[in-house]
Amino acid sequence: MFVTDWNSSALVKAATKAGKKKATLTPMTFSLLHATDFADRLLYNIIPPLKAGMIVLADRYTYTAFARDAARGVDPRWVRELYSFAVRPDLAVYFRVPIEVSLDRLLARRVKLKFYEAGMDLGLSPSLVESFRLFQGRVLEEYDRIVDEFGLKMVDASGSITSQQREFRRLVADYLEGASGPQSEPVD
Amino acid sequence: MDPSQNPSTENGAASTFEPGRYYGYPLPYLSIDGYPGKIIAIEGTDGVGRSTQIALLREWLEVQGYGVIETGWTRSSLMQPTIDLAKSSNTLNKLTFVLLYATDFADRLEKEIIPALKAGFIVLADRYIFTAMARAGVRGVDRSWIRNLYGFAIAPHLVFYLKIDVETLIRRVLQSRGMNYWESGMDMKLGDDIHDSFRAYQRQLLKEYQALADEFSFRVLDARKRVQSIQDQLRRDVGAFLEASDTPSMGTLAGPGDPLSPKS
Question: Which of A100, B52, B90, B173 could make an SS bond with B47 (beta carbons 3.0 to 4.6 A apart)?
Fold first, then answer.
């Protein structure tokens, strides 16, 4: 098994960090930088373990970009074609949560919402919390479209961690049962 | 591509597009309708004399009172350090490179080119999206994917292509600054010898440029001619184009058109 995070390739980190710090990213450069990062991780971190028959757990995948970039005003068709080099996941699970719940959770855990996460670059509201609510509301709308378009499985993420995990494991187990099973030779 | 445009052309190979409009899916949040500026792009491979021609052309345009800005490949403040780092560390694959270049271009498009078009300036582009397409084409990146990727680019009003043959190019590059790793396509492992690699790589690259010249209707200039004679040709073509486009709102040095002013 191999775990890959969104936005972790060393190369693109510097530019993304600089752009985010100075808040100079446009919706297009935001989108393209994340696609570059994804391409880097796809080729170095995702494809090799797949070829070795491992399970890759991706914390966010292309759907995050589809939702977020479209919510920023980038053409949704363009983003989909941009990511057409990506490997289509065997199973994609969407943890769905109402905007107020996600906002409460974030505010409880952290002092400050991040500039781009709150969509402050779009000038929707001068208030960070209000901007977050408006922007993430748009992102959730996009996700709802994506769930239908790409057949994502859903987990109700407003429940307890235990109940979410139970649901999640059931989805994964169902999928693995239907698939061919472990690729490697059994060890005696 | 806009389905309302007629795809048929004289040879059937060229795409149709309207100068000053987006090639493909537009940036929905950035309308450029009616912007009076013009984009003039100069394309051509490494060491072919682009920057010399651009400097001379700029001087000539400014003397006539046109406002001119220059934009060049990988010159965005956002991406230049990262691209330089990527080149020096040599860990990048072709896809990541293509995307880094596209990010650089997007940054310059939104922060330099579009504001200048709005203010009625002439944008002189030292390479445009076609260099990215040629390099990606040589490296086997999917053609339709890269065309879609650059769909957010604005079609230039004029594209000049400085055409050269490999033998002349080799002599010229050796006489000036020598061959470097990337210009020789050493990442493609065409050979250990930099000269042989340069020759093989540039030959492929020139083939790609030629295909693009047909597809995007470049105006071809013979780069083997003397600097002044190429410049004369450039000025004749640019002059005729500007006269014909006859846009009284074009910014001039005497006018109020400051490209950095948001409300000009």
Answer: B173
With residues binned 3-state (H G I as helix, E B as strand, rest as coil), the percentages for chain B, rounded to 5, are: 45, 10, 40
Given a contact cutoff of 8 angstroms between Cβ atoms, the answer to whether B234 and B53 are in contact is yes
User: Which residues 20-49 in chain A show a CB within 8 A of chain B?
Assistant: 24-29, 32-33, 35-36, 39-40, 43
Angle at B30 between CA B25 and CA B34, to 5 degrees: 95
Instruction: For chain B, say whether A52 makes contact (Cβ under 8 Å).
Output: no
In order of their start, the domains of chain B are: 38-164+218-242 (3.40.50.300)
**Interface mutation target, options A42, A75, A83, A122, chain B, most CBs of B under 10 Å:** A75
pLDDT by residue, tens only, chain A of 188 residues: 677 766 656 666 767 777 776 778 999 999 999 999 899 889 888 999 999 999 999 999 999 999 999 999 999 999 999 999 999 999 999 999 998 898 888 888 866 888 998 999 999 999 999 999 999 999 999 999 999 999 999 999 998 999 999 999 999 999 999 886 555 555 55
State the complex-level ipTM: 0.82
Q: Is the minimum CB–CB distance between B79 and chain A shorter than 8 Å?
A: yes
